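Researcher: Please predict.
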Amino acid sequence: MLGGGAADSRERPRGRGGLAAVAACASTAHGQAALFRTLSVGPVSALAFSPSGDHLAVGGANDTIPVVETTGWRIVHTLEGQTGQVNALSWSPNGELLASGSSDSTVRLWDPATGETSAVLAGPTGL
C-alpha cells in the first residue's frame, strides 16, 4: 500500500507535495487487514519484498534505496550509487542479490547483506 492507497491495484499512490509513505499491512486470522507500521521515505517509484518477505526495498526519486527489515520496520541499509530516479527493483530468487534500474541508464546489482554494489551494468545512451 502506498500513501494511503487502497488494496485495489488500480488505485494510484497518493501523498502530499509529491511525498508518499509505505504502509505495512498483513492479514489477520479472520481475513481483516491490520496496519503495522508506516515508514516515511519520500517519493516512491518502486517496491520489492525479498523472497522470504523479511526485507522491503524502496526506490524513489532521491537516488537512494532504503532496505527495510519487515519485523521491526527499521532501515538496515541505505543503498547509494544510482544517480537517477530508481524505477525498478527485483530480488534474486534466493534473496542474495537485489537489482535496481534507474533513469541514469544503469542497472546495479547489490549485496543486500552488506549494502555494497556487486556490479553496474550500463545501458544504451543517446536514445
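Model: The domain at 41-122 is CATH 2.40.10.480 (Thrombin, subunit H).
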